[in-house]
Design brief:
The structure is a homodimer of 339-residue chains. In chain A, the strands form three sheets. In chain A, strands 2-1-3-4-5-11 form a six-stranded parallel β-sheet, sandwiched between helices. In chain A, strands 7-6-8-9 form a four-stranded parallel β-sheet, sandwiched between helices. In chain A, helix 5 (81-96) runs parallel beside helix 12 and helix 8 runs parallel beside helix 9 (200-215). Chain A folds into three domains: 7-51, 434 Repressor (Amino-terminal Domain), CATH 1.10.260.40; 65-169 and 302-328, 3-Layer(aba) Sandwich (Rossmann fold), CATH 3.40.50.2300; 171-298, Response regulator (Rossmann fold). With 339 residues, chain A is α/β, with parallel strands linked by helices. Chain A is built from twelve helices and twelve strands. The longest helix of chain A is centred in the last third of the chain and has 18 residues, at 301-318. Chain A binds a DNA duplex (16 and 16 nucleotides) through helix 2 and helix 4. Chains A, B: It holds the Pfam family LacI. Chains A, B: One of its GO terms (molecular function) is DNA binding. Chains A, B: Residues 5-60 form the HTH lacI-type domain.
Chain lengths: 339, 339
DNA sequence: CTGAAAGCGCTAACAG
DNA sequence: CTGTTAGCGCTTTCAG
């Protein structure tokens, strides 16, 4: 294996100084004659020179990379399709603009030990927080204290932080859309089935449902369950049905949970939506699987990622975030599961 | 915002040389008295010093980071649950050992333009290739030519490459398990529904099915379709049914496709598995949704990621990969959709 | 138009 | 036990 060529080896080969090579590499037109440029380019080609990003970073203090910390109690932190699509959007938009994405999955409370935090080698950090609002704010403050631009996903803005941008889809608005859909028929009692981990987006959905249901005099109960497998969801909802009887509406925190709910209702001889209306949340391109088709909202996770990347790129360019907050509107996906 | 402290500022504060601080930071016991160590640690604490990874990298030529290139024609390259779980396993195992994961989604043929390739800042590269075998081999050679340790996912080994490790689940073996399950009843004709993008893992599955079916005198047809949405899958399989009639068995390239197949069969008044047996592939923790429950194999995607990370860590430690190939065995998930 | 040189933050060899 | 120093590869200023 030959040594990797450096500016110096190229300079040697082309009989010029490394400063000249640097100019050519960086496409700096001023101060290089066409003739030398050609020669240098030939040497670069011949040696197969590729610039060393580390040397460049050390000098320029820019790393062409963005860090993403996903705070999640599950080691399979990427299992959730929302996260998955967000990462894809972020990564694509970054890659397209010559930036890399440094991915970290971190357990709640372990953020300060993560090497993303302990050693900086990125131009900006993205944070996908989970936990209670207090825990999330603590995480935001920790990362913000690093003095790097920060993008926070899915959470509501915090006042006292500098150089931070909040990007999320309009989860409360999406919930209102679904609630209004459901309310096309008269209802008395609704149940929302949520995971036992507090997620900011879910808080917003609860708020959206509550707003509409309360205004229409509909009682809203919350049922919490472990969402890691459909078994746990089933027993969670089954417990509620046994204790409180059958409600008019079941809204799932997401599509997976809603499908599990439809399953157990069907198993008990109930018909959706005749006996119970069911709605999901966060439809993704590949989710036309349930019967009856789920009434849900189309997730903007991918766009959230793209928006964040664009905001970061722009921030790096101009020294500040243009907007402090981006809220992407959601769209109803009508289905046969409601109303 | 205060300047970020460096070795120098800590040294100044503690009235020692930067060499001494460096030793303390790196936990080098030899040559530092307990007293100075304490003083230095106090200075580090007070200044909030964190080592700069870039300076360290430049000097030590190690980056504590691994690159992952996912070659996929879809911009939503992370949509596939296999990829998702693989990334999670890889990322967790790497993070746990102080390594970062630099993620790149790249379009087929664009690999050489990717900045992961063009600028090295990682200690090893992982490649998740797609396309024809030729295209995949070209990609492997390209990356291998960088002179960095390389891990290739899901593909069969290539002979002439140095410092490469191949990690995959036993897709052919998994297909044989399913085929044998299906063959518990007599069959004449089977159809495999596959995506129009060639994936190495799918080639292996086809080979596994073919082996068993051929040995038992069962004809195996292939139907190709766009797998990006269930609509396209439905029309693909519908076309086959119209042209060739109903086969005894339909095997899907993955669970999503199999579920779409069950849908369309049911819609046509056919009963699974009475009229047609259906099998899937790559069950993930959250895939108990179809009725009848799908006969499939449990994917080892997460373990593939973990295995790769461990292999890389070991390679970086010892200078060479211990094994050239890791093939993780698959396990049947029996279901009611077959036999 | 071209080159010499300083220095980004760090490690490690070597000198004291 | 501690400090001095020479770079790692690069960008950029300043002189020629």
């Amino acid at each position: 294996m030959r040594e990797r060529p450096t500016l110096r080896s190229v300079a040697l080969k082309a009989n010029v100084s490394i400063a000249t090579v640097s100019k050519v590499v960086n496409g700096i037109a001023a101060g290089v004659s066409e003739a030398t440029r050609k020669e240098v380019e030939a040497a670069i080609e011949e040696l197969g020179y590729r610039p060393n990003r580390v040397g460049r970073s050390l000098r320029s203090q820019r790393h062409q990379a963005v860090g993403l910390a996903i705070v999640d109690p599950s080691p399979r932190f990427l299992a959730d399709p929302f996260t998955t699509n967000l990462v894809a959007g972020l990564c694509n938009q970054l890659n397209t603009n010559g930036f890399g994405l440094l991915l970290y999955g971190v357990m709640p409370g372990k953020l300060s030990e993560s090497s993303l935090i302990r050693q900086s080698e990125v131009d900006a950090i993205c944070l996908n927080p989970s936990g209670t609002r207090d825990e999330r704010e603590a995480a935001m403050e920790l990362v913000s204290g690093l003095g790097q631009p920060l993008v926070v996903f899915q959470d509501r803005p915090v006042q006292n932080l500098q150089d931070v941008c909040f990007v999320r889809q309009d989860d409360a608005g999406g919930a209102e859309l679904l609630a209004n859909e459901v309310m096309k028929r008269p209802r008395r009692r609704a149940v929302m089935v949520i995971a036992d981990i507090p997620w900011p987006a879910v808080e917003n959905r609860v708020a959206g449902f509550r707003k509409v249901f309360e205004a229409r005099g509909v009682q809203l109960d919350l049922v919490t369950c472990d969402e890691t497998d459909s078994q746990a969801i089933s027993s969670g909802i089954a417990g509620y049905l046994d204790d409180h009887g059958v409600p008019d509406v079941i809204v799932g925190q997401n599509d997976q949970i809603a499908i599990a709910c439809i399953d157990i209702l069907t198993a008990r001889g109930l018909e959706v939506p005749r006996d119970v209306a069911v709605t999901g949340y966060n439809a993704f391109p590949f989710t036309g699987l349930s019967r009856p088709a789920l009434a849900t909202v189309r997730s903007r996770a991918y766009d959230v990622g793209v928006t964040a990347a664009s905001a970061i790129l722009e921030r790096l360019e101009n020294g500040r975030f243009r907007q402090r907050e981006y809220v992407l509107p959601l769209e109803l996906v009508p289905g046969n599961s409601a109303p």
